[in-house]
């Protein structure tokens, strides 16, 4: 019998979402859907449902590093993504561990700087942002802020496409890394994202799905990009495929009824083609 082809491996370093729509759970579903074997290093446990975060309990920085260390030593990790990192201590510890990989084959790092939940709940401690900027961003193959996150980094609100272009260009120049600015929170008929890389801007657009209240789109998007990089796709190809994938997960979402009768939505991480 012929040997099975080697499956690409990706690592997600993020929080655990009890409702399984975002975080580690969304990342693993996305990796699996895109033919990648997913590894996990959990940074915190989040008790939440779509629209409400009840409680967050962090894992120690030492335990986060122990998870990463054993995985990097034993698996051929081809790409890494970070999601919710919670504290400056955890951000710094991860950056230090990844810098220690110097001299080994470079593994692309996708950073989703998760700061605020879709519900509006604050997920990141104040000390973490400086650690991101000084220690983790310089290691990135791509940083993927949404408009709220980019506004915090930019220092001004971002409310239209022209401001997106200005802010994205300035942030990419400031951090000297490729940046994908996600415009899903803008008004309009299309969800437009802008990729800033090597002084160029590439636009990705898809019809906006309204009336769907879910969470985990940012996690799913960055995980899909990571899966593409792990599979050998270029950065632009990875983003383009990921955009189609996340659009499909929204359009083909799951739906239930709460006890109150209100709708409960979740992304469908196994959407039918096309994506």
- Number of beta-strand segments: 11
Shape: globular
Main sheet strand line-up: 3-2-1-4-5-6
Task: Kindly estimate the percentage of residues that lie in beta strands according to DSSP.
Answer: 15-25%
Q: Cα distance, first to last residue?
A: 32 Å
Q: Give the count of helical stretches.
A: 8
- The poorly predicted ranges are none
Describe it.
It is a single chain. By secondary structure, the protein is an alpha/beta fold. It has 8 helices and 11 strands. The strands form 3 sheets. The protein has a 6-stranded mixed beta sheet with strand order 3-2-1-4-5-6. A 3-stranded antiparallel beta sheet has the order 7-8-9, sandwiched between helices. A hairpin with a 5-residue loop joins strand 10 and strand 11 (263-266). The longest helix is centred in the C-terminal third of the chain and has 17 residues, at 235-251. It is globular and about 50 Å long. The chain starts with 8 loop residues before the first strand and ends in a 9-residue tail after the last strand. The mean pLDDT is 90.
